[in-house]
């Protein structure tokens, strides 16, 4: 089966970025998340449709996986999705404990992890509620000498496909037309 890049609209993301199979994903990680403040040309992601490893409290998200990630409909967006496809780029999220409040994020390129001394990526829940709606994504580069590309990960679609209060804010900040990888 062939994969292709297709244009979709963020204003109806709850109709197409959905769970298509049960993977054991904890409720706190379900939904669609907006990368608020991300300097790269990608906007939303989901943890749906990837296997949850309950023993190790981890999952692996292929950035160019089918309907896994959205990219801007621009030359930089096209370049980023193509680079993710070619390099088989993805992230392993390893949560610190069963509370799922924080995680180490390990980037993979061509199936190999990028050493922590190059990229030390983490995320942890912030805000008044600890239900997974808002996460801080931190990036330490080259042994902690540089902090670049940090952002807030906000849930914009709930597991029941309803939009959160952050959905309208996302639509005001991100281009509505996006690129996704789909099966042809």
Q: What can you tell me about this protein's structure?
A:
This protein is mainly beta. The chain has one domain. The chain contains 2 helices and 13 strands. It is globular and about 35 Å long. 29% of the residues are buried.
Q: Characteristics of this structure?
A:
184 residues, mainly beta, 13-stranded antiparallel β-sheet, 13 strands, 11% helix, 40% strand
Topology:
Layout: E1 3-9, E2 32-36, E3 42-46, E4 58-62, E5 69-72, H1 75-87, E6 90-95, E7 102-109, E8 112-113, E9 119-125, E10 134-141, E11 146-147, E12 151-157, H2 167-173, E13 177-183
Antiparallel strand pairs: 1-13, 2-3, 2-12, 3-5, 4-6, 5-13, 6-7, 7-8, 7-9, 9-10, 10-11, 10-12
- Rounded mean pLDDT is 94
Overall, the morphology is globular
**How many discrete domains?**
1
C-alpha end-to-end distance:
7 Å
- Could you spell the SSE succession in H and E letters? EEEEEHEEEEEEEHE
